[in-house]
């Protein structure tokens, strides 16, 4: 079972995304730098990730690392230098270790998703869901926070 997650608004709260969308890139960079040692809040699928990681750990305890039947992936638009450290520190503070993390610096999520071939991909932004669906990847929209508010507002117009 390969499960891929977006970060902000899915595994994590959308607190950083709110800063980015309301105040712009410079404010976002400053916020992430100032908050590097402060874990992000929990998003709606954090507990689901925890359950999957706990299953992974049970297989790892039996020596199944490379061929573990449960694998978890983070596929995020975040930049590894500007905001990746906070994400990794947050996951560490939660005691969660994913199979692999992709920090895409705003690049399309299609290439890593094509490589991973997840059984399901979760994201809070409809364009990322639509892109994954075009690749034949089963995807689920997580209606949460500012990303959902913007999407909902666009649909109402």
Describe this structure as you would to a colleague.
GO terms for molecular function: 5'-nucleotidase activity; magnesium ion binding; nucleotide binding. This protein is of the alpha/beta class. It is 49% helix and 13% strand. Strands 3-2-1-4-5 form a five-stranded parallel sheet, sandwiched between helices. Strand 4, helix 6 (126-134) and strand 5 (139-141) form a beta-alpha-beta unit. Helix 1 (15-23) runs antiparallel to helix 2. The protein is globular. The termini are far apart. The model has no long low-confidence stretch (mean pLDDT 91).
Task: Give a brief rundown of this model.
The protein is of the alpha/beta class and 157 residues long. The chain has one domain: 3-Layer(aba) Sandwich (Rossmann fold), CATH 3.40.50.
What is the element layout, followed by pairings?
Layout: E1 2-5, H1 15-23, H2 25-34, H3 46-61, E2 71-76, H4 80-93, E3 100-103, H5 110-116, E4 120-123, H6 126-134, E5 139-141, H7 145-156
Helix pairs in contact: 1-2
- The name CATH uses for the topology is Rossmann fold
Helix content estimate: 40-55%
Give the strand content: 5-15%
Q: Would you list the SSEs in sequence order as H and E? A: EHHHEHEHEHEH
Q: Under the CATH scheme, which class? A: Alpha Beta
- How many β strands by DSSP? 5
> Strand order across the biggest sheet?
3-2-1-4-5
Can you tell me the residue ranges where pLDDT is under 50 for at least 5 consecutive residues? Answer: none
| Termini separation | 39 Å
Molecular shape = globular
Biggest pleated sheet:
5 strands, parallel
Q: Please count the helical segments.
A: 7
Query: Radius of gyration from the CA trace?
Result: 15 Å
Protein name: 5'-nucleotidase
Organism: Conger conger
Pfam family, one: 5-nucleotidase
InterPro entries: 5-nucleotidase (IPR010394)
